[in-house]
Design goal:
Elements lengths: L8 E11 L15 E11 L2 E7 L9 E5 L4 E4 L1 E3 L11 H8 L4 H6 L4 H10 L2 H17 L2 E7 L6 H15 L7 E9 L10 H19 L4 E4 L8 H13 L3 E6 L7 H8 L3 E4 L5 H9 L3 E4 L1 H7 L6 H6 L3 E4 L13 H11 L4 H8 L1 H6 L17 E4 L6 H4 L6 E6 L2 E3 L13 E4 L1
């Protein structure tokens, strides 16, 4: 069975269309504001949306694939804007250690954590990285993800960092790709053993050798750093991200995850695309991000698996922040890409509404990657990335607690309709090819 329909022309009719609007992140109360067309139609030509509105009674459908979505909700495709997609090995032992009371930082100090995956990734064959990543991408697609960020950061040397980014580039070039990968360079994920005791020298290496090499090959759009006590300091983070910005990279930052370091304030100072994690962000940092239009990317799955307090999503939104949600898929602290559980945790424990969660996983996720001008909403001129739920209400996203209610994922106008073989749709839409 073919996995894809080529991006020819598509009509989705009789759908309840629910989407945020705009080309920038929605902030504060704006995150609640969604266009809601009860009986709507979307027309797609060559993968681009050309019409959004009420059903047209008379329409020539001769050159279109037609999807009758009666009693189903149509949303923008989900944007998972923070993952560590490409890696070697697994770390199930560390999950047990954490269950027994070991902290994330104590595991790192005994040679586990990121260093464990760095060893495995350096030893992995390029095709091993490709095959594992393809499996994860397929799983994400089944849950409605159409765009995903992929970070490097498990090489910490030139050869392996480039191998991770090359894997993403290869996957992006595949015909009929299910997901689009936005690559981010995270060479400053940890201090490699070769530079032990010399973190400033490693930052120099990243600035003088890695950034130029990656920019020349156009392997990454953005640059990120793990700004954390015992990893990289605020000043080291500022130095790397300023250099990256000067070379044309968008900048992002792992901020205030395990301890308060002032990472949110630094993100605002630099005009970063996003500051991510933010479990210990200060009130001043939250206000600064709101003022400087930095997207606060929150990762409730990681807090859940580490048994840490959740980021203050409700307070961030109430203080005017643009909040995005992402999974933080990685082999250590959060081996999950579950969009359903991410939504459930955000609504139940971070006190976000379903409308806010939708905005956070679509338009604001796109903005956190610098692509809100072309993805993240169902609007004329944007890429036809959409999700059809097997329910007539968007509340199903939270109501199906940890369960998948995605019936079809549509990528660039292609209907990906051969997954979820055991899922019984509540009201299956009828598909016909004219």
């Amino acid at each position: 069975m073919k996995l894809y329909r080529e991006p020819d022309n598509l009509i989705v009719k009789n759908a309840r269309i629910v989407t945020p609007l705009g080309n920038t992140a929605r902030k504060g109360k704006e995150m609640q504001e969604l266009l809601d067309i009860p009986n709507g139609m979307v027309i797609v030509e060559h993968g681009v949306i050309t019409y959004v509105g009420k059903n047209k009674r008379r329409l020539d459908t001769g050159d279109y694939t037609v999807l009758d979505a009666k009693h189903a909700v149509l949303l923008p495709g989900f944007v998972d804007s923070h993952t560590h997609l490409v890696f070697g090995g697994y770390r199930p032992d560390e999950f047990i250690w954490r269950m027994n009371g070991d902290s994330y930082m104590s595991i790192m100090e005994r040679g586990g954590g990121i260093a464990n995956t760095v060893r495995a990734t350096r030893e992995a064959h390029q095709w091993d990285l490709v095959f594992k990543s393809e499996w994860l991408l397929n799983t994400m697609s089944q849950m409605g993800v159409t765009t995903v960020e992929g970070k490097s950061g498990y090489g910490l040397d030139c050869e392996t960092e480039l191998a991770q980014l090359r894997t993403m580039s290869y996957l992006n070039c595949q015909k009929g790709r299910k997901l689009e990968i936005i690559p981010t360079f995270l060479g400053a994920h940890a201090l490699p053993t070769e530079y032990e005791g010399h973190p400033d020298d490693y930052i120099d290496f990243l600035i003088n050798e890695m950034l130029p090499a990656i920019r020349e090959k156009e392997f990454a759009e953005n640059c990120d750093i793990f700004c954390e006590k015992g990893v990289f300091t605020i000043e080291q983070s500022r130095r790397l991200l300023k250099a990256a910005k000067e070379r044309g990279f968008g900048v992002k930052i792992h901020a205030d995850e395990i301890n308060y370091t002032g990472g949110a304030e630094l993100a605002a100072e630099l005009g970063a695309l996003s500051a991510d994690h933010l479990l210990h962000a200060s009130d001043a940092g939250i206000r600064a991000m709101a003022e400087q239009n930095v997207v606060a990317t929150l990762l409730p799955l990681t807090a859940f698996t580490l048994r840490e307090p959740y980021a203050r999503g409700r307070e961030m939104i109430d203080n005017g922040c643009a909040v995005a949600l992402a999974t933080d898929l990685n082999p250590g602290s959060c081996f999950s890409c579950s969009i359903p559980l991410t939504i459930a945790l955000a609504c139940l424990y971070m006190h976000m509404s379903v409308e806010e969660a939708i905005t956070a996983l679509t338009l604001n996720g796109a903005a956190a990657l610098g692509h809100a001008d072309r993805i993240g909403s169902i609007e004329v001129g944007k890429q036809a990335d959409m999700v059809l739920l097997d329910s007539d209400t968007p509340a199903a996203l939270a109501y199906y607690t940890g369960m998948n209610c995605v019936q079809y994922t549509i990528k660039e106008g292609r209907i990906l309709n051969d997954f979820n073989p055991y899922q019984t749709p509540l009201r299956p839409p009828f598909i016909k090819t004219s």
